[in-house]
Amino acid sequence: MVPPVTRVKVTGGSWPAQIWQLFTSAALAEEPIADFPPAEVDLPTATTVPTATVPSVVGMRGEDARILLEDAGYTVRTEGRPDRDYPPGTVLDQMPSPNMAAAPGSEVLLVLADGAPRTTLVPSVLGRYADEAGAALADARLVAQVVVEAEPPPGDPARAGRIWKQAPLAGGQVDEGSTVTVWVNPG
After folding, report:
1. Beta strand pairing status for 107-113 and 75-81?
2. pLDDT tens for residues 25-46?
3. I want to staple 174 with a disulfide (CB 3.0 to 4.6 A). Which of 97, 159, 170, 178 is the partner?
């Protein structure tokens, strides 16, 4: 749930927090407002760690992002991820997320585009059993998603448990790690 699939990087503080706020507001709408009870334990205040917000570097060149974060007092670690939408070296993601609090000196992970993913040929799995199809797709570095659904009439009872449709079709080139959906007759 990261761009470009969603318009923002979905974190616990984004859409999930908004959904929870809507739910709890409706659930507690009839409840009177009450103060929190006093804390029973005295927490030491001298052990608080100063924090700052991590600047957003998503979309920047990796080297520029590293310099900005190190100048702000963070240590930086990078890792690559295949991506064909952004030029190699572009920051695709960061942890902690932009504008999150983090102690100076803490580590910020930058995920950098490292070129287009490798592609693979989609094998034909029509007529195979689901486990055979899954193994063939795994060998091609693809992921199988199985849908159990009867093929349209006239169906043949001898094809019970066999794949009758796949998407994408066999012979096409897709990125390694892509999902191939296969429809298998109940059986």
Report:
1. parallel
2. 888 888 888 887 877 776 666 5
3. 178
